[in-house]
Design brief:
alpha+beta; two-stranded antiparallel sheet; single chain
């Protein structure tokens, strides 16, 4: 597991740290889903595939 601490900006934005970007195959312009799990009180980021956009 790779983890890091980031600060939330005034507009509630965060930057994905480079250590995580290297493991997570996304690039500028990609679309991702942000999923909140109420049961576990966690947030996941999942890359959207081309197939999901169709």
């Amino acid at each position: 597991m790779v983890e890091d601490i980031v600060k939330v900006s005034r507009n509630f934005q965060i930057t994905i740290p480079v250590r995580i970007r290297k493991k997570f195959p996304i690039k500028e312009g990609d679309l991702v889903k942000v999923i909140y799990d109420e049961k576990d009180n966690t947030v996941r980021i999942v890359k959207i595939t081309e197939e999901e956009l169709r």
